[in-house]
Amino acid sequence: MNKVWLLVLVVFCHEIFSNGVVTNISTRPAVVNVGVILSYNTHIGKVAKVSIEAAIEDVNSDPTVLAGTKINLTMQDSNYSRFLGIVQTLQFIGKDTMAIIGPLNSVTAHVISQITDELQVPLLSYLAVDPALSSLQFPFFVRTSQSDLFQMVAIAEIVDHYGWKEVTAVYVDDDYGRNGIVALGDALVEKRCKISYKAPMPPKATQDDITDILVKVALTESRIIVLHTYDDPGLVVLNVAKYLEMMNSGFVWIATNWLSTILDTDSPLASNVMDDIQGVITLRMYTPDSKLKRKFISRWSNLTGGRNANGSFGLNSYGLYAYDTVWLLAHAIDLFFNHGGDISFSNYIRSTELQGGSLNLDALNIFNGGNLLLKSILQVNMTGVTGPIEFTSDRNFINPAFEVINVIGTGFRRVGYWTNYSGLSVLSPEVLYTKPPNRSSANQRVYSVIWPGQTIQQPRVDMFNGYCIDVFTAAHGFKNRTGERTGKGSGSRTSGPTGVGPVVER
Ligand SMILES: *[C@@H]1O[C@H](CO)[C@@H](O)[C@H](O)[C@H]1NC(C)=O
Ligand SMILES: *[C@@H]1O[C@H](CO)[C@@H](O)[C@H](O)[C@H]1NC(C)=O
Ligand SMILES: *[C@@H]1O[C@H](CO)[C@@H](O)[C@H](O)[C@H]1NC(C)=O
Questions:
Q1: Are 420 and 400 in contact (CB under 8 A)?
Q2: What CATH number has the domain spanning 2-7+27-147+292-389?
Q3: Which of 40, 291, 470, 494 gets the most CB atoms within 10 Å of its CB?
Q4: Which sequence spans correspond to the domains of the chain?
Q5: What pLDDT does 44 receive?
Q6: Which residue did the predictor score with more confidence, 139 or 349?
Q7: How far is the CA of 438 from the centre of ligand 3 (A)?
Q8: What is the pTM of this model?
Q9: Ligand 3 centroid to 19 CA: how many Å?
């Protein structure tokens, strides 16, 4: 439908149905443009797409939210490409877009933030969890989920709780991985612990790369391994680790929330995948139980049914945050209009005396209301499916909290919670918030974990001495990096690291 007709229709409907409930409509446009960039073919992207579409339908069908103004959403699939993400951002900006939701990963967010900052278009991301993105360098970037900063503090407190002093960090060598691990290092130092070995993986690591990396990890002192990566490579790492017998008792694997995201989205996982991840600890962004959340969860199978060829998939915590991000933006746009904001753009070229040359830079527009919209976003105070939403002065969501999850059997079990308020506890965050904060070590508790090797015996520090490492090395022929491994590991399973199931296909 042509835009003018849509506008006429919206205003017309509004006149009929609003019955004077809404004031100063004349200052509000019928439609505002919002862009969304995500990667449909990922655990997070496919779930977020459904959530965002549902949210926009809900927002647009509720005339009390924006006094009749509709949000016109344009979605783009960046297919995990940083370059496409940039091109799409520029396309949105040429279309008078007042805000952008997305993009998928922290790496792309770093680049896109530079564009959106320059053109004063707020960029909301429920996903770019890289702690470095909250720096003052990117004023128009707003994170609408929990920062990895808190997840890393949670991991450091888990390490400290069990009395371990050193960890090995296996991570993807990009902004997301590196900055996450820097935050982990800082958090560990606060607990007088440290990262004793860093094992960066290339972002497109092959199984051979991963095998080489894990062999080096196996030869280090620490058996406490923190795995901070993306979903698909993460499963490959755990599969190779299983093959190398690094999933035996004595090892500890703490996976950041990429693993809980897979468990939530794709459960039940194939049994060979579950075999690979037994005993792993992972974290999940905590969202309290509520009527609103339960209502959304009950709609989920309807929302996913029939929308995709591969059958339905589960809702993960990013899906909940994606849904709330749209509502948060809608409330912010309402505040923006209440503060007298209007949607106007000025040409970037004219304001910077930049010569476009053969590039078509005329399409670049600065959003004049950008600062006001940003201010409005940070002022929102609402309750969504993820619980109460409000920003702290350092632009984090209030009450950061995670669930601590232990993968066992055919599923997983919550063994406790971590809150910024009281550290580790078996009590739910809502209960903790009613008590005074208490971080005394006597108060830190989680239920017992079943560790790799199906043991409830807590892996000890410095369990492995040189002798064990030598035996381990000899048993696996690790000195021979590319040749076939003749140790007992190679015969113990038919699929091995070269025959992992379809889950790890990229
Ligand atoms: C628009 O109406 C809201 C209340 O509905 C009011 O707070 C605001 O001041 C009004 N804005 C203008 C520009 O009149
Ligand atoms: C987390 O806790 C620290 C220390 O108690 C506090 O300074 C900070 O504001 C908290 N952050 C959030 C987002 O609640
Ligand atoms: C914190 O918890 C510990 C152990 O449960 C208790 O002994 C202590 O009194 C608590 N401190 C406060 C301030 O409540």
A1: yes
A2: 3.40.50.2300
A3: 40
A4: 2-7+27-147+292-389, 149-287+400-491
A5: 87
A6: 139
A7: 6
A8: 0.84
A9: 57
